[in-house]
Each structure stands twice: as structure tokens, then as C-alpha cells.
Specification:
The chain is built from 15 helices and eleven strands. With about 400 residues, it is of the alpha/beta class. The protein has two domains: about 1-60, no CATH class; about 80-390, TIM Barrel. The strands form three sheets. A four-stranded mixed beta sheet has the order 9-1-10-11. Helix 9 (about 225-235) packs parallel to helix 10. The chain starts with about 35 loop residues before the first helix and ends in a 7-residue tail after the last strand. Bound molecules: iron/sulfur cluster. Iron/sulfur cluster binds next to loops.
């Protein structure tokens, strides 16, 4: 895929012979037109990587949104948008991976570095549960000083002492770190976490699944294959996970397609992804800010959401977040193929470290979904619907 070349021209190319004749994925692209590609999409056939790239670079935004909306309603016909009442605390910001897009981490011993005890985290979870939180998405840095027993204890005690919440803990990077610290394989680490009670993991750590990009922004973090391998092993054991993507930095359009192709293939193999969750790079306070000081545009976000709905034909849910791109953009995303509005995020520290702060609460989240023309459905981590709030706010 890395040798997929972007076309020489961009803009509307409907009816125009495309400059590619083939790509490294073996797809013939001769006479590719938007019209023919839209027809293929509408007929329910899967588009190729080359067609995905062609659409990304040439489709009108509103056409893309319309197509994605059609697919969303075919897949999930109810005019419902789901959300989860959740929180994203962190147990440690100590990390030795040095991703240049990250403003959150501190080296061991550096000013501002912290690692909380299991007891401290359990008390936080209890406070969150008392406020109605049902999902805790927990991540840290990759802290080499923490023994594997710390993570097992955290999971065991959460399941036992705070049964109201679903632990959605640890990115692939942390799981690889646990394997290194404990001398076990990734599979063994995941099995022991499963025995402790963990049932789902977040999709963090993917950024862009292109090794060309990873070498530039997170050279110590492992390869795309490493991320996919953790997810594959997790899904085989029975875990569910999300698939994420952080774009808007050094990637090309072809890298985005490579990312989508990788997760679509793995989903074909395991069926373990619940949803696709994209967000844009937030440059504040990061080393990468010197090179990429700006935010990706809302237009780009809507393109990504719509393309994901079209390309990821084996994903049930696509998330448009009120948090990561702003409330208005998140609402519009619900008309570009997304059917989930993310979580209420009682606590969030990673984007906050990059000076990006956005707040809501359950009531406003419901209201934002209603304003967008949908009923709001509170869900669990695994997308089971708990209760539906119709547009006049009554619980069904
Ligand atoms: S993104 Fe994660 S792994 Fe990378 S530096 Fe930040 S905390 Fe560490």
C-alpha cells in the first residue's frame, strides 16, 4: 500500500480518465470515475483501496456525506444516535516512548510526573460511578517501573469493587509494555488480564497505521503490525475493542487509506471492532507543534467520517465526537454517516495537556443529539442500548 501514489491532479474528476493504471494492491484503476464508484458503493459492493483514495481526493464533500448517510441508515435504520456516560482518567503519565505528537507524558523523575496507586484509582472510579458513569476508559503512559501485578490488581479490584462500571483499559502500547516488563508474550498478558476481568480495550496507539508515518511521529512505539497483532490476539481471546485513527499531521491521503484497509482486513478476520473513532491531531505543547502548528479543518473531519462509513463496510458504528472536533462539527458528523456521539468524558487529560478543552454533560449530550434530528440512546461500552431519550426528552 505504501507505494500507492496520489494522483497528479485533484478536484472533480468525474468522467475523467484517472492517471493511475494500477496500484500495489493490485486494483485496476483505468477509467475510474466518481459516477461509477458511487454506483458501486450504492450497490453495496466493497470499494478497493485505489477507489477509496480516488473518492477521498475527488468527491464533493456533500456527495460523500449523502452516500455515507445512505449507508448508515441501511446498516442502522433507526434514527438513533448512541452515546456513553464515561470518563477518561489516567493512572500514570510516565512514559518512555517519546511520541512527538504527545503533550501528556513525562519522563520518569521529571517535574509533573505522577503514578497513582491502585487504591487511588479505585476511589476515583467509585466517585465516577456515583455520578452515573458506566465506562472508564483508562490509559497511562508506558511506565517501565510498574510491575504487571499493578495492572492485574487494578482490573480485579475494579470488577469486584466498582461493578457499576465497565473497565475499558489499556492501549496496545501499554499491553506491549506489560509484556516487556513481565517477560510474557502479548497473548499471555491479554489472557491474564482477561482472567482478571477485562473484556474490552480501547483502540489508542494506532495513530496512522503506516510505518512511514510511525517512523516520523512515534519511532519507539512499534510498527503497524504490532498494533494489529495486539488487536488480533485480543479479539481471538474474546475482547472487543475500538479502532481509532489520529490524522492531521504528517500523513498523506494514501496513508489514511492504508489505515482503513488494515482495520477493514482485521475486522474481516476477527469481527472484534465495535466502532471506528477518528480524531485530529492537537498540536498544543507537543514537539510536533513546531512543524504542524495548526488544527485539521472541520471539512477534513467530515470527509474522514464519511469515507470511513463508506470504506469500513464491516463496521457497525462510526463515531462523530462532540469532544474532539467541537460540538457543531460533531453534530454535522451525524449527517455524514456517524451513528455514535462518543462519551460524556467526565475527565480528560490528554487533549487538555495540548490546551484543547471541551466540556459537556449527559443532559447537553442528549440535547445536542436531539438538535441534530435524532433520538439519543445511552449505551454501554459494547454498544448495548440502555435507554432511549426521544426528542422531547422523555425516557422510553
Ligand atoms: S502517546 Fe502514549 S505512548 Fe506516546 S508518548 Fe504519549 S503517553 Fe507515551
Amino acid at each position: 500500500m505504501a507505494s500507492l501514489s496520489p494522483p497528479a491532479t485533484t478536484g472533480r474528476l468525474a468522467g475523467v480518465r484517472h492517471p493511475w493504471s494500477s496500484s500495489s494492491v493490485g486494483t485496476k484503476c483505468e477509467q475510474m470515475t466518481l459516477e461509477a464508484t458511487y454506483k458501486k458503493i450504492r450497490s453495496g459492493r466493497r470499494i478497493t483501496a485505489a477507489e477509496g483514495l480516488f473518492v477521498l481526493q475527488n468527491a464533493e464533500l456533500l456527495d460523500l456525506g449523502e452516500l455515507a448517510g445512505e449507508i448508515r441508515f441501511k446498516k442502522n435504520p433507526e434514527p438513533l444516535v448512541t452515546f456513553v456516560v464515561d470518563t477518561n482518567p489516567n493512572y500514570s503519565n510516565v512514559c518512555n516512548i517519546d511520541c512527538v505528537f504527545c503533550a501528556f507524558y513525562r519522563h520518569p523523575g521529571e517535574e509533573g510526573a505522577y503514578t497513582h496507586s491502585v487504591e487511588h484509582m479505585i476511589q476515583k472510579f467509585k466517585e465516577s460511578a456515583a455520578k452515573g458513569v458506566t465506562t472508564v476508559l483508562l490509559q497511562g503512559g508506558v511506565n517501565p517501573a510498574l510491575p504487571f501485578e499493578y495492572y492485574l490488581d487494578l482490573v480485579r479490584r475494579t470488577v469486584k469493587e466498582v461493578p457499576e462500571i465497565h473497565p475499558h483499559f489499556f492501549s496496545t502500547s501499554e499491553i506491549i509494555g506489560m509484556a516487556q516488563v513481565s517477560g510474557q508474550t502479548v497473548r499471555e498478558v491479554l489472557e491474564r488480564l482477561w482472567e482478571a476481568g477485562l473484556r474490552s480495550i480501547p483502540g489508542g496507539g494506532a495513530e496512522i497505521l503506516s510505518d512511514r508515518v510511525k517512523k516520523k511521529i512515534s519511532s519507539k512505539k512499534g510498527t503497524s503490525a504490532d498494533w494489529l497483532n495486539v488487536m488480533r490476539e485480543a479479539h481471538r481471546i474474546g475482547y472487543k475493542s475500538t479502532a481509532t485513527m489520529m490524522y492531521g499531521h504528517v500523513e498523506t491521503d494514501a496513508d489514511i487509506i492504508e489505515h482503513l484497509e488494515s482495520i477493514r482486513k482485521l475486522q474481516d478476520e476477527t469481527g472484534g471492532f465495535t466502532a471506528f473513532v477518528p480524531w485530529s491531531f492537537k498540536p498544543g505543547n507537543t514537539p510536533l507543534e513546531k512543524i504542524i502548528p495548526h488544527y485539521a479543518t472541520p471539512t477534513r473531519y467530515l470527509q474522514i467520517i464519511a469515507l470511513a462509513r463508506i470504506y469500513l463496510d464491516n463496521f457497525s458504528h462510526i463515531q462523530a465526537s462532540w469532544f474532539s472536533e467541537g460540538k457543531k462539527t460533531g453534530q454535522i458528523g451525524l449527517h455524514f454517516g456517524a451513528d455514535d456521539f462518543g462519551g460524556t468524558l467526565l475527565e480528560e487529560n490528554v487533549h487538555a495537556a495540548a490546551n484543547f478543552v471541551n466540556k459537556t454533560n449527559t443532559e447537553e449530550c442528549i440535547q445536542l443529539i436531539h438538535e441534530s434530528g435524532f433520538s439519543a440512546a445511552q449505551r454501554t461500552t459494547l454498544y448495548e442500548i440502555l435507554r432511549v431519550h426521544d426528542p422531547i426528552g422523555a425516557a422510553a
